[in-house]
Amino acid sequence: MSNFPIETIRHSAAHIMAAAVKKLFPDTRFDIGPSTDDGFYYDFDMEHTLTPQDLKKIEKAMKKMIGQKIEFEEFELTREEAEHMLKGDNQTYKLERLADIPEGDRITFYRCGDFSDLCRGPHVDHAGQVGAVKLMSIAGSYFKGHEQNPMLQRIYGTAFASKDELKKHLERIEEAKKRDHRKLGKELDLFSFSDNVGQGLVLWHPKGAFIRNQFENFWRDEHYKNGYDQLYTPHIGRSDLWKTSGHLDFYADAMYAPMEIDNTDYYTKPMNCPFHIEIYKSKLRSYRELPLRWAELGTVYRYEKSGALHGLLRVRGFTQDDAHIICTPEQVEDEIAEVLRFSLSIWKAFGFTEIKPYLATRPEKAVGEPERWEKALTSLEKAVEKAGLNCEVDDGGGAFYGPKIDLKVKDAIGREWQTTTIQFDFNLPERFDMTYIGDDGQRHRPFMVHRALFGSLERFFGILVEHYAGAFPLWLAPVQAKILPITDNQHEYARKVRDELRAKGLRVDIDNRSASIGAKIKDARHDRTPYMLIMGEREVKAGQVAVRNRREGQLGEMSIAEVAEKMQYEVDNKIS
User: Fold this and answer.
1) Is the pTM of this model over 0.70?
2) Which domain holds residue 60?
3) Considering 247, 269, 372, 404, which one is annotated as catalytic?
4) CB-CB contact of 185 with 301 (8 Å)
5) Can 273 be counted among the known catalytic residues?
6) CATH at 14
């Protein structure tokens, strides 16, 4: 068992992999090999096209080096010495990386076996401290991430301090494959994509649309209860709006080409914020009106590279559950605390209990007075403290226009997802000259806070599918109960039961096929139906149904009233 940080273990594993690649493919040119959240990768340029069989050979060579406990040796060179060595090895990508190192910085290399790599480190002392490795996949990647640069071959792998940790990780990966929302979305007939419509544009099927409507309605109800007003804004806006907001200067690459209307350029909106600001500026505002809490389920369009698209998790057209809070400096602390409390309550309603905040502070280049930044950061820190959460600080990781809190939630198999963002903005209030009349009769600049709770409904839906493994809780399920008559003789009673339960607001269907009861039960399980209500002659005579619950198994015979009461309790309490 190694005592090194996991990032050091994985970065060292990347070097060991590169050393193995050099041994097997001597003419390879190397780029970089960093650690990642769940493993590592390394980018290579070689004539040979890597295959899954090559991964087995490379992994075998890595394990041999680990067994031999090959040492990591650090050595330092001058810039001239480093250039000479890299040119001699024809390492053109490393030469470009060397040029990126600022003058005056140390230039260090790490040797592992026959492989020496330009690297800051740190590394383990020897390969045996890496523990256990597994190479996962091969992908393409552009040098430095730019499409105009050469395409390299990337090998992804993972490493852990022990074989047991690696085994558990690989088991989680297998479970994640079973839960993949793209697979389940097709299997459960929830959504699809079509090349005829366009990449990254979601088509919602009836069942998926129903589930989405359920959590949209919940979202609206909870926002109204918590003092938000809902807005609707257009899908397009004039170019002048996006010039004022700065999007055409800083965000144009993510925006779609303009359309000309009445000799003026219009753009589909990548964000909702400027529209909300225009509503604010539609009249002179007084401090007595503040705070304003405005929310919108606003559909936006952003150009994502085709290689980055990933089911519902990364799309080109999506609906943000956007909200903006406009308030006085005196109100901001209470408002942030309330936003955080509200966000946590919503996530817990969907069965997420492990939630962690990350606080991003002021970067070197920032807009807004230092006093505003200080007050904003204090408000964020106090809100986290009040919520009783442990917070990680990302020093200097805030946007240039304000600090933020990001919430990450853990799903049923322990994966962390970036979700809610609570973001201060000192930029747009300045750009749009937002003001209010204070109690002194003078104009003042309000504080503006962006808040996306789910992030986007599409991504949130994808997370939910994987979190629940397609087995949505009763309050979200499109079909809450399937009535399964054993023979055709029970069809009339089945319709009576269906109508009684539907009259109570429950979503119930009948499987009236001429199939065996075993086949009907199997199909209901496949569809992740929460309740199965089975009926034969005995149940008809007794005026009851035999109840099977997806979570609790067989519950025995119940009257229709008892079934309705049990289901309604589960719906009202949002039991996951």
Assistant:
1) yes
2) 6-175
3) 404
4) no
5) yes
6) 3.30.980.10
